[in-house]
């Protein structure tokens, strides 16, 4: 018996990730993009309906299961509220949410009281696997210095990357002695024992690279990931959207949905 595809609305449709999501979804039978949202609708390359306002689109469409959002913190806050008001699940990969004036993290929590909500700073399966390895290394190498380095394309807005922040939290969960995040270094600044070094590089069209270095006095361990293209993020986000549709309201983790 044929299974109905999960019906999606993609926001930020002219963005790098919006375009990748629409393209990748076109090759899959488990999801279908029924509408795309953009402030500049003329530029959207999609066969689906194109709207400028999520609220109006969710009112017009017969049925939408999930809104998939890769935009900007202020837009994510607004779209989460609108999706919840329409009873539609919300999957977002937008980063830079921490401490933003629009309180997107509060908006995700509020939305999760009525619909399923998933936010992941990185939707690649490789990063999901790397996170387990990083927690294990952090627990096994208690006195080693830790330095996190990320590299992204020169149009990225937020620094450090959302993924870098997630990986730092993974290290910190096993190393409560590391209480200071040292962003870059300049001048006379010897390393302090409680530091995690954090380094953000912006160059060319690099899709996304992350490295966590553990250094003792006679050895180093380097755990790293490099995304070959944005398709890995799009596939993961669409997997998450397909898996979250029809679930109970609440906050979901990408790593949990991968295991189900
Ligand atoms: N979690 C993950 O795996 C990944 C996360 N990301 C994150 O996703 C986000 C988007 O990245 P990327 O696609 O490269 O960025 P782009 O700048 O290419 O696209 C963002 C899109 O968001 C829309 N947008 C921006 N601001 C607003 C606003 N205030 N209101 C409505 N729409 C807005 C715009 O679309 P339009 O003009 O069409 O409305 C824009 O095209 C970033 O936060 C990035 O860090 C990126 C890759 C992977
Ligand atoms: O902006 C990007 O491009 C990416 N953003 C995410 C992040 O901030 O970690 C994920 C990925 O690295 C690409």
TrEMBL record:
<dbReference type="GO" id="GO:0050661">
    <property type="term" value="F:NADP binding"/>
</dbReference>
<feature type="domain" description="Dihydrodipicolinate reductase C-terminal">
    <location>
        <begin position="126"/>
        <end position="258"/>
    </location>
</feature>
<feature type="domain" description="Dihydrodipicolinate reductase N-terminal">
    <location>
        <begin position="6"/>
        <end position="123"/>
    </location>
</feature>
<keyword id="KW-0028">Amino-acid biosynthesis</keyword>
<feature type="binding site">
    <location>
        <position position="153"/>
    </location>
    <ligand>
        <name>(S)-2,3,4,5-tetrahydrodipicolinate</name>
    </ligand>
</feature>
<dbReference type="GO" id="GO:0016726">
    <property type="term" value="F:oxidoreductase activity, acting on CH or CH2 groups, NAD or NADP as acceptor"/>
</dbReference>
<keyword id="KW-0521">NADP</keyword>
<feature type="active site" description="Proton donor/acceptor">
    <location>
        <position position="152"/>
    </location>
</feature>
<protein>
    <recommendedName>
        <fullName>4-hydroxy-tetrahydrodipicolinate reductase</fullName>
        <ecNumber>1.17.1.8</ecNumber>
    </recommendedName>
</protein>
<dbReference type="InterPro" id="IPR022664">
    <property type="entry name" value="DapB_N_CS"/>
</dbReference>
<keyword id="KW-0560">Oxidoreductase</keyword>
<dbReference type="Pfam" id="PF05173">
    <property type="entry name" value="DapB_C"/>
</dbReference>
<dbReference type="Pfam" id="PF01113">
    <property type="entry name" value="DapB_N"/>
</dbReference>
<dbReference type="InterPro" id="IPR036291">
    <property type="entry name" value="NAD(P)-bd_dom_sf"/>
</dbReference>
<keyword id="KW-0520">NAD</keyword>
<dbReference type="GO" id="GO:0009089">
    <property type="term" value="P:lysine biosynthetic process via diaminopimelate"/>
</dbReference>
<dbReference type="GO" id="GO:0019877">
    <property type="term" value="P:diaminopimelate biosynthetic process"/>
</dbReference>
<dbReference type="GO" id="GO:0008839">
    <property type="term" value="F:4-hydroxy-tetrahydrodipicolinate reductase"/>
</dbReference>
<comment type="pathway">
    <text>Amino-acid biosynthesis; L-lysine biosynthesis via DAP pathway; (S)-tetrahydrodipicolinate from L-aspartate: step 4/4.</text>
</comment>
<comment type="function">
    <text>Catalyzes the conversion of 4-hydroxy-tetrahydrodipicolinate (HTPA) to tetrahydrodipicolinate.</text>
</comment>
<dbReference type="InterPro" id="IPR022663">
    <property type="entry name" value="DapB_C"/>
</dbReference>
<feature type="active site" description="Proton donor">
    <location>
        <position position="156"/>
    </location>
</feature>
<dbReference type="GO" id="GO:0051287">
    <property type="term" value="F:NAD binding"/>
</dbReference>
<feature type="binding site">
    <location>
        <begin position="162"/>
        <end position="163"/>
    </location>
    <ligand>
        <name>(S)-2,3,4,5-tetrahydrodipicolinate</name>
    </ligand>
</feature>
<feature type="binding site">
    <location>
        <begin position="120"/>
        <end position="123"/>
    </location>
    <ligand>
        <name>NAD(+)</name>
    </ligand>
</feature>
<comment type="subunit">
    <text>Homotetramer.</text>
</comment>
<keyword id="KW-0457">Lysine biosynthesis</keyword>
<comment type="similarity">
    <text>Belongs to the DapB family.</text>
</comment>
<dbReference type="InterPro" id="IPR023940">
    <property type="entry name" value="DHDPR_bac"/>
</dbReference>
<feature type="binding site">
    <location>
        <begin position="93"/>
        <end position="95"/>
    </location>
    <ligand>
        <name>NAD(+)</name>
    </ligand>
</feature>
<keyword id="KW-0220">Diaminopimelate biosynthesis</keyword>
<dbReference type="GO" id="GO:0005737">
    <property type="term" value="C:cytoplasm"/>
</dbReference>
<feature type="region of interest" description="Disordered">
    <location>
        <begin position="169"/>
        <end position="196"/>
    </location>
</feature>
<dbReference type="InterPro" id="IPR000846">
    <property type="entry name" value="DapB_N"/>
</dbReference>
<feature type="compositionally biased region" description="Basic and acidic residues">
    <location>
        <begin position="173"/>
        <end position="194"/>
    </location>
</feature>
<feature type="binding site">
    <location>
        <begin position="12"/>
        <end position="17"/>
    </location>
    <ligand>
        <name>NAD(+)</name>
    </ligand>
</feature>
<keyword id="KW-0963">Cytoplasm</keyword>
